[in-house]
């Protein structure tokens, strides 16, 4: 179960770089935002774009990996395989938190999302910055 979920994540390009994956999803979302939303005078806060793009398959994969991890724990206890699956679970969990943060900002309006992104206030940006300097 865990290996299949890991393959799915690699297929979605989550594992090689969770920050890049979130950037990719953000780019796909911005592509759905109507052009008039980028003009400060005609911004339409009621139609920020298609948030379903941000709601992706990652949560379903997380549930699969978590079940696999739980099964390994029940059969073998904490072992190398459990630790490997735990790392995958942590990456997925971080990606889910990052996407929820982007989605929350998107629902506040296009301008709010743009300001958060430009100022580096999105969670994934802060974590990436902290990872670089630690």
How would a crystallographer describe the biggest sheet?
A: none
Overall SS class: mainly alpha
Strand content: under 5%
Tally of DSSP helical segments = 6
Give a quick summary of the entry.
This protein is mainly alpha-helical and 134 residues long.
Provide a descriptive summary of the structure in words:
The chain has 134 residues and is mainly alpha-helical. The protein is built from 6 helices and no strands. It has helices at 2-12, 18-31, 58-76, 80-108, 110-118, 123-132. Helix 1 (2-12) packs antiparallel against helix 3. The protein is elongated. The relative contact order is 0.16. The model has no long low-confidence stretch (mean pLDDT 76).
Helix/strand layout:
Layout (H helix, E strand, L loop, with lengths): L1 H11 L5 H14 L26 H19 L3 H29 L1 H9 L4 H10 L2
Helix pairs in contact: 1-3, 2-4, 3-4, 4-5
Question: What key phrases describe this protein's structure?
Answer:
134 residues; mainly alpha; elongated
